[in-house]
Amino acid sequence: MKSFREWFRDWDSGRYDLTEMTASSGEAFREDPDSGSSRWARTEVFSIRADVTGTFRKLYPVMSLILCAVIIVFLLYTVEALPPFASADTPANAGEVSLRYNSMALEETGALNVVSGVILDYRAFDTLGESHVLFAAAVAVFILMLEPTKGAGPETLGVSPDTVLEGTARVLGPVIAVFGIYIILNGHLGPGGGFAGGSVLSGAMILIRMTSRGRDGKGLLSMKGYRIITASSLIFYSLAKGYSFWCGANGHETIFSAGEAGRIFSAGLILPLNIAVGAVVACTMYGFYSIFTGGEV
Amino acid sequence: MIYDIPLLLIVMSLISSVICSFSGDRFSRGLCIFLVSCSLLGNGTLAAHLLSGGQSVYYMMGHFPHPWGNELRLGMTESFMISFFSLVMLLILLGGGRSIREKTEKGRRGYYHALVCLIMGSLTVLCYTNDIFTGYVFIEISTLASAGILFSRGTGRSILASVRYMIFSLVGSGLFMMGLIILYAITGYLLMPELKESVCSLYSSGTYAMPLISSAALLSIGLAVKSGLFPFHIWMSDTYSEAAPASSAILSGLVCKGYIFLLMKIIRDVFGQDVYYGMGMNNVLFVFGVLGVIVGSVSAIREDDIFRMLAFSSACQIGYVYMAAGISPLAGTAAALYQMFAHSAVKPSLFLSSDVLCACRGDSRHFSDLTGAGYSVPLAGIVFTAGALSMIGVPATMGFVSKCLMGGAALAASDIKKYTVLGVIALSTLLNTLYFARTVIRIYTYKDPPRAGRAGTEAQKAFAVPGTVFALLNLSMGIFASFLTRVSEKFAGIL
Q1: A19/B145 touch (CB, cutoff 8 Å), yes or no
Q2: Whether B111 and A143 lie within 8 Å, measured CB to CB
Q3: How far is B222 from chain A (nearest CA, A)?
Q4: How many other C-beta atoms are found inside a 10 Å radius of the C-beta of residue B461?
Q5: Is the bond into A61 cis (omega within 30 degrees of 0)?
Q6: Percentage of chain B modeled with pLDDT above 90
Q7: What is the pLDDT of residue A253?
Q8: Is there a contact between A197 and A183 (Cβ–Cβ < 8 Å)?
Q9: Would residue A95 count as lying in a domain?
Q10: A144 and A200 part of one domain
Q11: What confidence tens digit (pLDDT) does each residue in A45-77 have?
């Protein structure tokens, strides 16, 4: 049995990986110290099960339960004091910000869909950041998963060919893809937009990949294609929005006019930006799927 | 025209990160260094303009002014802060090139530099933003990007450490997001000037008191978790010791500081110092800051791995920042800001010079192997010593000035805080001396004829210029402290 001081020291030096408490095996990966290579080897050094004595293992869940209970009570009190949900006269619903968005969005942005008007015009800078969040996530995954030489992940998870799935995908895949494109293009006219449409489109691409893999092992998109689409969308997005921000800040009008509301070519930059966001979202989600199942993008 | 610079730099860093991600190792490094130099020049020009009496402005990101559209606030401290960050980033990239090259696999450095560009862009936005939700979006970018540069080493332990960092950091983002939602629900605004107005009126009328307190708490705790305040510093030791030293330097010197600067902006521009300190939220920061200082120092003494020691010393220094911010709204905030400058200039130099010291001993990080390393690579030894002196708080270094400011702020505070702060500064100076003096003595203990080895000599050659600049920055800002002090005091609202 360890003394308090000993396990405090171990905790402090990071030996207990608390995130591992729920892991079933209780083992973790570390470098192989003997061979000096970075091969992952199973050792017991970081293992909770092997290392933590009874006191800590019993104390830890109890303490976390108490902490969670305190936080829950605190947040419940907060929620109870918040303005009532869905009532019309709360600060968020009746404030000058939402009033202007609701009444002026069509006139000022040319978009029938107020949400698109807000995320791609009023608050377009946030959305520009948001699409680069996806990009950052994709790059972090590439760093982690791609073998630089082969461009493929560490192991391949094959999806066994399945007649039912294949038949379904053959019928549904194109339909879903068309629907996804419709959502992207319709973003400024009705419910939809790049983020929603892009994820639907990526669903179709993943479905098609799942079934076509069994035969030739290739996806819809090569790494090169992926890079070209993502890079050109993101660069177009940054440049277009940079130009529009610059115009706004210096009091110029942009060359993109709002047009006639309700037409497909209207609402200035919103349509092209929706297409760019849709392409980035679809490619990133599809790329994650292909990398995690261990192929080329 | 001069006010367009930040927008240009933000767009540039986003675009160059995309370009870096598919270009080769050398080109991406060049592009990244070019971007950071542009950022230094551009923001430096803006800062000089604002320091010499230029008007600070709200820069609309689009056609809609606040409270409807996104905005940047181009103020003096903001532009100075980001110029300082760019300078440190430039020095890290130049001096840490070797560690990036050796600790990152060939073919992955394009991705690495893409993430560095993203970090640079998000730091720019975190410094300038006038919109709290934009702050959140760019916090996400820097979280993912810094997790990525930690992953890049690719060994088992470093991946484990970075996953742990990411979990902590995402918990912090989640808490920040919850605080943001609550604040929006009770005010209906996301831009700082209107938020401050309506928070002030809510506070004085007493409506929504509970949500107001919990949103202040959640925003503060979220950013504190992300920047590694005690007890959330436990991700630091593994993360900083396993990652490439350049990544540790970027993380400890810049990313964590970006979060803290955003928190200080939120305290000043969203809640207002009166409300925030009136709610007593600063006392929470103060208590955990004090604990962080002591626990960090005690843990650092026990380490025999130089990078883990530096990691725990980071925990101690972050504790200082929060302790100072907790003392008092004016003098305390100024001291906290100065401490941020000091730590972000000094800690990267310590990480990079230790890397050179270790390089001449076959990349071993244990104290026993480092005996006499200061003779083998004299310049790295000198830079390390200068940094160590600053961490201890010896006069003529930045660390001394920041401890001085903290002490000065404490003298004007209540009795409990006064004696706590003075006691903690005394105690932790003693503890810091214990472990830094031990290291310095160790690297200057003459053991056998000094041998640098090829790796050591080459490492030192690459580190020579950036290392010297780091050391000079530390000493000059410590000796001619009045400039930085004035910037900090202006931010806090004293001048």
Answers
A1: no
A2: yes
A3: 14
A4: 13
A5: no
A6: 64
A7: 80
A8: yes
A9: no
A10: yes
A11: 344 444 455 667 778 889 999 999 999 999 999
Please state the domain extents for chain B.
280-495
Is A141 in the same domain as A249? yes
Quote the crossing angle between the two packed helices B453-479 and B378-392, to the nearest 10°.
Answer: 40
Q: Name the amino acid, one letter, at B260.
A: I
Segment holding A172, helix H or strand E? helix A163-185
- In angstroms, rounded to a whole number, what is the distance separating the alpha carbons of residues B377 and B95? 15
For B134-151, write each residue's pLDDT tens digit. 999 999 999 999 999 988
Q: Are B334 and B489 in contact (CB under 8 A)?
A: yes
Tell me the C-alpha distance between A151 and B468, whole Å. 40
Q: Would you call A246 and B118 a contact, using CB atoms and an 8 Å cutoff?
A: no
Residues A30 and A146 in one domain: no
CA pair distance B440, B372, nearest whole angstrom: 10
**CB contacts, 8 Å: A81 with chain B:** 208-211
Position B292: which residue type?
G
A216 and A286 co-located in one domain: yes
Q: How many domains does chain A have?
A: 2
Query: For the residues A79-88, what does the mean pLDDT come to?
Result: 86
List Cβ neighbours of B62 (8 Å cut-off, separation of 6 or more).
A121, A122, A124, A125, A244, A245, A248, B69, B70
Query: Does residue A71 sit in the same domain as residue A120?
Result: no
Residue of B nearest to A150 (CA): B107
Q: ipTM value of the model?
A: 0.91
Instruction: Supply B111's token pair.
Output: 């991705």
Tell me which residue in A9, A12, A133 faces B141 most closely, judged by beta carbons.
A133
A132–B4: do the CB atoms touch at under 8 Å? no
Cα B325 from Cα B278, distance rounded (Å):
14
- Per-residue pLDDT, averaged over A167-181, amounts to 91
Separation CA A131–CA B363 (nearest Å): 39
Q: Dmax over Cα atoms in chain A, in whole Å? A: 77
Give the residue from A66, A81, A96 where a domain finishes.
A81
Integer Cα distance of B221 and B210 in angstroms: 16
pLDDT tier, A104 (very low <50, low <70, confident <90, very high otherwise): confident
Cα(B111)–Cα(B19) distance, integer angstroms: 10
Q: What is the mean pLDDT of residues B61-65?
A: 85
Contact list in A for residue B103 (CB cut-off 8 A) is: none
Contact between chains at A129 and B137 (C-beta distance less than 8 A): yes
Amino acid A292: pLDDT:
77
Mean pLDDT, range B175-181, rounded to an integer: 94
Task: State the DSSP string of A39-105.
Answer: -EEEESTT-HHHH--HHHHHHHHHHHHHHHHHHHHHHHHHHHHSPPTT-TTSHHHHSHHHHHHHHHH
Evaluate whether residue A178 is within a structural domain.
yes
Interface of A with B in 176-235 (CB under 8 A): 227, 230-231, 234-235
Q: Which residues pair with B131 in a beta bridge?
A: B191
* Cα dihedral A267, A271, A276, A280 in deg (nearest 10): 110
Same domain, yes or no: A47 and A132: no
The model's pLDDT over B370-398, given as tens digits with 9 standing for 90+, comes to 888 888 888 999 999 999 999 999 999 99
**Taking CA atoms, what residue in B is nearest to A29?**
B156
Please give the residue range of the domain that contains residue A74. Answer: 4-81
